[in-house]
Amino acid sequence: MDLDPGWLRATVAGALDEDLGGDPGRDVTTEATVPSSLTGTARLVARADGVVAGLVVVAPVLDEVSRRTGLPTVRVELTVPEGARVGAGDVLAVLHGPVRTLLTAERTLLNLVSHASGVATHTRRWADALAGTGAMVLDTRKTTPGLRALDKYAVRCGGGTNKRMGLYDVAMVKDNHVVAAGGVAEAIAAVRQAFPDVVVQVEADTLEQVMTALDAGARFLLLDNMPPAVLAEVVAAVRAREPQTGRVELEATGGLTLASAHEVAATGVDYLSVGALTHSSPQLDVALDLDGPATTIPR
């Protein structure tokens, strides 16, 4: 579930630039009120029940602030693993080091951890709703600009599965592509000719479109905005053809809710894709509490 270290460094640097006004930047309140020699302990605490994700950013944020301020590094002790279910009041990490660094880094690390944990918490609800059905919940490209890697990491922490990472790794033939190419078969053929190594997925919203896509060689179908009764009919028709076509992966998408998740999964689809995992998850309330009294770093 690791994040790319280069992406993580760049993302942390950009987030701190926003808060500090560039590199090295400044925190005028903390620099005015907290002596550089003051050291202390702070605890990262959940204020609500949820699933934790994004703790991987805590040390990089603190390290980057230490670099910018020239102060000693902060010692980070994570007390729960990524993906853990936590309750209100649970300590997620203990941080010990210069108070200036702790306070300067506070908002940036809380923004990232709270956001990622919110996505993981929401995803876990879907994963739990689908437990035992054989279907998996997928994310989409409806992510926060600049934070796609973190959003999809959080989905994994919450028990979900990543679909494509972007426009570059999977071809998804949708209605506008069909219009532009002159048909489903033409669109699939064009992708396979241009990018023979890329998986091709095709969107369909009627049984007729599904059959056309199968005839054209599609083996991964997005069944868009179909009620459960229609989904069940489509799944049965596709499975009946699998002795000839081979295995076809089926994804339900569009208008899905937690209340209907189990019913949709019972139709026999392999996946439910849910854009709301990353575009509508409320943040998990996480806080940074500074212990007192702090001590002074020996000179």
UniProtKB/TrEMBL annotation:
It catalyses: nicotinate beta-D-ribonucleotide + CO2 + diphosphate = quinolinate + 5-phospho-alpha-D-ribose 1-diphosphate + 2 H(+). The keyword Transferase applies. GO terms for biological process: NAD+ biosynthetic process; quinolinate catabolic process. Residues 27-117 form the Quinolinate phosphoribosyl transferase N-terminal domain. Pathway: Cofactor biosynthesis; NAD(+) biosynthesis; nicotinate D-ribonucleotide from quinolinate: step 1/1. It holds the Pfam family QRPTase_C. GO terms for molecular function: nicotinate-nucleotide diphosphorylase (carboxylating) activity. GO terms for cellular component: cytoplasm. It comes from the Bacteria. NCBIfam families: nadC (TIGR00078). Belongs to the NadC/ModD family. This is Nicotinate-nucleotide pyrophosphorylase [carboxylating]. It comes from Actinotalea fermentans.
